[in-house]
Amino acid sequence: MPDNLTGKVVLITGATDGLGRGVAIALAQRGATLLVHGRDRARAEAVVAQVQAAGSPETRLYVADLAALAGIDRMADAILADEHRLDVLVNNAGIFQDRRQESADGHELTFQVNYLAGFLLTHRLLPLLQRSAPARIVNVASAGQAPIDFSDVMLERRWDGWQPTANPSLRRS
Description:
The protein has about 170 residues and is α/β, with parallel strands linked by helices. It has one domain: NAD(P)-binding Rossmann-like Domain (Rossmann fold). It contains four helices and five strands, in the order βαβαβαβαβ. A five-stranded parallel sheet has the order 3-2-1-4-5, with helices on both faces. Helix 1 runs parallel beside helix 2 and helix 3 runs parallel beside helix 4 (about 110-130). It is globular, with a radius of gyration of 17 Å. It starts with 8 loop residues before the first strand and ends in a 34-residue tail after the last strand. The relative contact order is 0.14.
C-alpha cells in the first residue's frame, strides 16, 4: 500500500470499533479521505473526530444499520449522490450473535449483516467504483469464516453461535 493516499476516498463499513476503526485511523494518517460507516451515530461521530485528528479533515459520516436492506439502500443512495469518487470499499462490518435472530427482511441476522450487506452495498456502489478506476474492494472476514451451507442458508435447521461465521472445526457440538 502506498504511503501517501492523498486524494484517495475510502469507505469503511463497521468503522466504529476494532479492525475497522484501526484501519480508518491508519489510512487517515496516510492522507486518505475517509467515509466512516457505523450504525450508532454517537460512536461513529467519535471515530470521525479521531480520524480527522489523525490526518483526514474531510472525513464524512454515513450512518446505517446493515440489519435492514432498506438502510443499506439509503446509505448507497446517499453515497452515490454525495461522493464523486470511491477508490476503496472496505466491507468490514460484522456481528456475532449468541442466539438466532432474523432481520426485518426475514434473513438470519448474522448472514445478512456479515454476507448480504457487503454484497448489496458493493453491487449498489459498483458504478462509482468503476468510474473511479483503478478502484479496489476489500472484503474482511474472520479466520473462522465457513462456507455457506446452501441447503440451510437461513440456518433454520441447525444454528449455534458459531454457525453463521465459524469454520466447522471451531464449532461447538
